[in-house]
């Protein structure tokens, strides 16, 4: 009994093993066949979708890729061209702005130089050179000389006016005094009309103008005098200083002249 049972059990196991192997082989073959049919279907459908001329799907796909690539290259070239144009436009605009800036700077420089030349010319024209050695004086100096002569010698004759002008001009040319008419006249404690302000209020007469012009032209009676004094109107201390420190030259009307 045990032997028969063992025999049947082994036989049943062998049958199950063979059946499994058979069905496994059938399953694998079926899978391969189904896969083959699927490939054929896909190829057929793809071929029919790309036209009737027999072109295959791979060729159509490659052509499509080529067209897309060409369009992308063309678009890239257009973008590069537009970018280059914008860059050139920016450069042109920057260059134009730079040229405008340079032009403005040059214009300003030219205007400034013209103004400087005009100022120098005006100053040169304002400086009038007349005959009296190398003496040069400005229009301001001339007006100051007219007023100091008028204030100091307004009641004097022509020679008296010319003598006062001679003393002023002698001081300008002397190393002991300032070298401009204005500075000589306004030197501290030198002329009473400056101290009392009458130099600014006097009215210059045509006679005084003529006498000053004659002095500037070289008419000179001063003998080199650098000082003059109206003794009747001078303080005693000032008169004593003139007498003790200076050399008396001559007297004309009310003025005494010293060196």
Helix content: 55-70%
Cα gyration radius (Å): 62 Å
- What is the N-to-C succession of helices and strands? HHEEHHHHHEHEE
Number of separate helices: 8
Residue stretches low in confidence (pLDDT < 50, at least 5 long) are: 124-132
Give the percentage of residues in beta strands: 5-15%
Number of strands: 5
Q: First CA to last CA: what distance?
A: 179 Å
Protein described:
By secondary structure, the protein is mainly alpha-helical. 69% of the residues lie in helices and 7% in strands. The chain has eight helices and five strands. It has helices at residues 2-49, 57-126, 139-153, 158-173, 181-185, 192-196, 206-216, 236-245, and strands at 127-129, 136-138, 227-230, 248-252, 255-258. The strands form two sheets. Strands 3-5-4 form a three-stranded antiparallel beta sheet, sandwiched between helices. Helix 3 packs across helix 4 (158-173) and helix 4 packs across helix 7 (206-216). The longest helix has 70 residues, at 57-126.
Describe the SSE topology.
Elements: H1 2-49, H2 57-126, E1 127-129, E2 136-138, H3 139-153, H4 158-173, H5 181-185, H6 192-196, H7 206-216, E3 227-230, H8 236-245, E4 248-252, E5 255-258
Antiparallel strand pairs: 1-2, 3-5, 4-5
Helix pairs in contact: 3-4, 4-7
Brief overview:
This protein has helices at 2-49, 57-126, 139-153, 158-173, 181-185, 192-196, 206-216, 236-245, and strands at 127-129, 136-138, 227-230, 248-252, 255-258.
Question: Which key features would you list for this structure?
Answer:
259 residues; mainly alpha; three-stranded antiparallel β-sheet; two-stranded antiparallel ribbon; 8 helices; 5 strands; 7% strand; rod-shaped
């Amino acid at each position: 009994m045990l032997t028969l049972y063992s025999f049947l059990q082994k036989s049943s196991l062998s049958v199950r093993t063979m059946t499994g192997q058979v069905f496994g082989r059938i399953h694998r073959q079926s899978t391969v066949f189904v896969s083959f049919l699927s490939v054929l279907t896909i190829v057929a459908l793809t071929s029919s979708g790309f036209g009737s001329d027999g072109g295959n799907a791979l060729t159509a796909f490659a052509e499509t890729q080529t067209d897309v690539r060409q369009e992308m290259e063309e678009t890239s070239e257009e973008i590069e061209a537009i970018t280059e144009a914008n860059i050139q436009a920016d450069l042109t605009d920057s260059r134009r702005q730079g040229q405008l800036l340079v032009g403005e700077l040059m214009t300003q420089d030219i205007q400034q130089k013209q103004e400087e030349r005009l100022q120098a010319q005006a100053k040169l024209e304002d400086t009038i050179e007349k005959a009296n050695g190398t003496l040069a004086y400005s229009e301001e100096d001339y007006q100051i000389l007219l007023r100091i002569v008028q204030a100091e010698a307004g009641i004097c004759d022509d020679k008296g006016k010319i003598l006062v002008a001679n003393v002023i001009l002698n001081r300008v040319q002397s190393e002991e005094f300032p070298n401009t008419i204005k500075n000589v006249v306004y030197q501290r404690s030198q002329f009473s009309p400056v101290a009392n302000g009458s130099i600014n209020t006097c009215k210059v007469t045509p006679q005084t103008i003529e006498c000053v012009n004659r002095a500037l032209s070289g008419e000179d009676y001063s003998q080199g005098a650098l000082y003059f004094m109206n003794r009747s109107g001078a303080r005693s201390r000032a008169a004593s200083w003139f007498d003790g420190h200076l050399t008396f030259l001559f007297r004309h009307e009310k003025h005494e002249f010293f060196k």
